[in-house]
Amino acid sequence: MNIEDEIKQQLAENPIILYMKGTPDEPYCGFSAKAATLLKSTGVGFAYVNVIESPAIFQNLPSVSNWPTYPQLFIKGEVIGGSDIVEEMLENGELLPMLQQAASEAG
Amino acid sequence: MNKEEVARKITELCPDAVVKVRGENCHFEVHVVSEFFQGKNSLQRQQPILALFKEELSSGKLHALSIKARLPGE
User: Fold this and answer.
1) How confident is residue A107, by pLDDT bands cut at 50, 70 and 90?
2) Residue B64, in any domain of the structure
3) Which of A21, A64, B3, B46 has its CB surrounded by the most CB atoms within 10 Å?
4) Is B53 in contact with A68 (Cβ distance < 8 A)?
5) What percent of chain A has pLDDT over 90?
6) Based on the structure, what is the number of domains in chain B?
7) Average pLDDT over residues A6-22
8) Do residue A84 and residue B50 have CB atoms under 8 angstroms apart?
9) Quick check: is B32 in a domain?
């Protein structure tokens, strides 16, 4: 399986997934830390990938998502954006229903 | 990469833009006000701007770019 298929499979299997530098508990970068903290604050479960430990994903995800930086949040396979957008959408009330719906659909 | 280079690239995309760049060397915060964002959501506003810096971001010359993209009067 090539790397792009692997990414697509991860996106298909995880309704909410954060590609970040580090882990939610040990983020390596401020932006990744912010996105992970914001997501944890919603109480909705999410998968994550530490792209520092997966160089192939780190190199190839930007061309799949057309988003060149990290972190990258995906909901139901769609790129939502980086930490600025996650923060903005959480503040304007857009993000929580999207997360809850994605989580509930996963069953 | 310096602030002027960041601002210049953005004004090439949005000639009417008012661009403020803060930060230094590899971590910048960019405030852009332009009609270009008319009818675009956050993702659609940021994606074309980030695309301008694709090489610098993948080479690590630019570590991060925090973007505030607004319409005039927003």
Assistant:
1) low
2) yes
3) B46
4) yes
5) 93
6) 1
7) 97
8) no
9) no
Name the residue range of residue B7's domain.
Answer: 3-27+39-70
Q: What is the pLDDT of residues B11-63, one digit of tens each?
A: 999 999 999 999 876 678 999 999 999 999 999 999 999 999 988 888 878 87
Closest residue by Cα to residue B18 from B1, B2, B37:
B37
In a domain, B34, yes or no: no
pTM, two decimal places: 0.88
pLDDT of residue B53: 93
* Percent share of chain B, pLDDT over 70: 97
Give the whole-angstrom CA distance, residue A33 versus residue A24: 7
The verdict on residue B66 lying in a domain is yes
What is the least distance, in Å, from the CA of B70 to any CA of chain A? 13
Closest alpha carbon to A90 in A44, A51, A42: A42
